[in-house]
Amino acid sequence: MIDLYTANTFNGQRATIMLEETGLDYRAHYLTLRKGDQRQPKFLKLNPSGRIPVLIQREFCDSTPFVLTQSVAIVQYLAERTRQLLLESLAERARVYEWVQFHATDISSALFSAFYLHRLIKPAQKQAADLLRLRVHNFYRHIDRQLGKHEFLAGSQYSIADIITLPAVIAQQDKLTEYIHLMRWSQQLQQRPAVQRGLSIPQPELSHEN
Fold first, then answer.
1. Which contacts of 190-197 are long-range, i.e. CB under 8 A and separated by 24 or more positions?
2. Assigned fold of 90-196
3. N or C: less crowded end of the chain, CB within 10 Å?
């Protein structure tokens, strides 16, 4: 049995979509970040950095529960464990990981920095935040070009690259409508029953708990 501690953020939804896609048996425990659930001593024992998601595998190699943090690491672990949503050849898998890292590092970091500068500090640094949002749009333009050539991010097959990228796109889709290939891809993926189940918690706030 897997226990997942999560919340309605981009990174939390990556984990729930992946669990639904793999069909693994799991229990979801939802934290309310605005209330500080992630800073409670019980949760900090699982992840001292106080961030979600956290996956706990009760039956692993020995009697000690396996605890894993970081949304990308969780999705990759589940893919390797089940041999699902990873492509066949080394080159194909490398392409998947390339797109995984593109969103997780380049886009996610810029999104969080823009949110921080605009919402979390006083006085707000609106000009700097706007420059970062422009950078994000340039990144999504790159993704849009890729999806104009291929059905999915890493090529012709659905993979964890799509799962890593999708939740943030859905949350911002009213600002991304100019990217027709990105919107086609997003709407297509949202028709998948496993994606619908994984997204069944409320739409994510712009938060980047990892």
1. 190/166, 192/21, 194/17, 194/20, 194/21, 195/17, 195/20, 195/21, 195/166, 197/16, 197/20
2. Glutathione S-transferase Yfyf (Class Pi); Chain A, domain 2 (1.20.1050)
3. N
- Domain 2-84 = CATH 3.60.20.30: no
Specify whether the CB–CB gap between 5 and 54 falls below 8 A.
yes
Does residue 178 contact residue 143 with C-beta atoms inside 8 Å? no
Please spell the DSSP secondary structure of 81-118, one letter per residue. HHT-S--SSHHHHHHHHHHHHIIIIIIHHHHHHHHIII
Give pTM, 2 decimals.
0.88
In the numeric block, the tokens 């001593």 are attached to: 41
Which of 168, 205, 197 is CA-nearest to residue 33? 205
Instruction: Reply yes or no on whether the pLDDT at 1 is more than 70.
Output: yes
Task: Find where tokens 């659930």 sit.
Answer: 37
CB 71 within 8 A of CB 7: no
Confidence class for position 132, pLDDT limits 50, 70, 90: confident
**Start-end of H helices in 122-159:** 126-149
Amino acid 64: pLDDT = 81
Domain-wise residue ranges, the chain: 2-84, 90-196
Angstrom distance (rounded) from CA 198 to CA 15: 8
Q: Are strands 26-30 and 54-57 parallel, antiparallel or unpaired?
A: unpaired
Residue 34: pLDDT band (50, 70, 90) is confident
- Round the CA-based radius of gyration of the chain to a whole number and report it: 17
What is the tens place of the pLDDT at every residue in 104-123? 888 877 676 665 566 666 78
